[in-house]
């Protein structure tokens, strides 16, 4: 005979085996692959500016209680640089390649790879639609089992299933990790309830112990590489150096609807590009966008000219030799974007229609003046040089230096 205690633990072990998953962990890490689409010429600036306009309009509408499905009639450009996570939906799961987006909060699938209904899929009575500026989708809201990593499953995640989408060739949808308020107004018939994000569900189910995301993107000069990482519920200290400098979410509208912060930007030792002003941190933007007056100061300081073919700023090699760092100061901590970090990777010049030997810059014109509460966008070009932390619980954004902050990869 076995002692009762043994039997009890055997039964427990069997019970656990029969109901796998849901082991609480302090954090969960999801690998991200960075992909550069070189099969067609991209207009990076147009894509990013269109997106920024749409985000700003959406933020303003939301702050003023208007309908937030901002209509922006601009050309749709697919993103050239994307970070993709593989996420499973259903049981058995269909795997989807989803864009990681801190500027929106709906998670949806089906843009390219069709959604497959399984026994875990529950269709709701809601339609869903989101406009991203350079792209949009609409479809039906489901709840389904979402598998983020092996053994890490959300049994009941609300997700959109696209019946129509544009601007998303090559990816299947979006993993929205922005503030949950951005889901308001995306369902019809209109409902006042928010759609809990993947992060919210991981947290409310106790799967992660902090409502926080840490993101590592790394610069690369190759077309596709598995070099990014998203950590839910904490940060990965192997991906950054020193400590994380946090800034509270700005109180300035409309940046405060997003992962918005106050920041000032300085060129070299003393040229102010933007005095302290509000803007956002965004993984759906490739470049660093600065309000027109600040952008013009940067152009004067660097001597750059506009390159008509790519839409980016261009420097001569003599000007590049003199290029100073840009300092992004937020909550008293300065983050240095080196001269090399201000370059578009030269090995990818031709992918954006540029000339192989030219020197293009990743700073672009936001297309509106400063003082409008949405005066900069820190996109990939910034986030590939600093680890970033999006902390819902404490309403703050953090940055830390990485081994790539001062690297000369471009
Ligand atoms: C599943 O999620 C939906 C929407 O988030 C919610 O209305 C419903 O109550 C949830 N069901 C269960 C069993 O948790
Ligand atoms: C690249 O972009 C083109 C046109 O925008 C699109 O047709 C193609 O599917 C994209 N490829 C990938 C891998 O994203
Ligand atoms: C950000 O800047 C605005 C405008 O100057 C100011 O009112 C606010 O206190 C600053 N800090 C935060 C966290 O919003």
From TrEMBL:
One of its GO terms (biological process) is proteolysis. The active site is at 101, 282. GO terms for molecular function: aspartic-type endopeptidase activity. Keywords: Aspartyl protease, Hydrolase, Protease, Signal. Residues 1-18 form the signal peptide. Belongs to the peptidase A1 family. This is Aspartic protease. It comes from Crucibulum laeve.
